Task: inverse folding
């Protein structure tokens, strides 16, 4: 658990990202999923984000 802080508070935020598709077909195949994960892992250190599960 990593607590973050600013001038007057200490906090711990959790986000749950859910991607919803319009039609019931497989849109995210293994290639797209691995590329999206690479992008999230690249961006996460810039914003002090920890990816817990994929």
Result:
């Amino acid at each position: 658990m990593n607590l973050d802080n600013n001038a007057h508070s200490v906090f711990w935020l959790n986000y749950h990202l859910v991607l919803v598709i319009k039609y019931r077909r497989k849109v995210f195949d293994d290639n797209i999923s691995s590329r999206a994960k690479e992008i999230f892992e690249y961006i996460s250190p810039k914003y002090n984000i920890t990816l817990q599960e994929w």
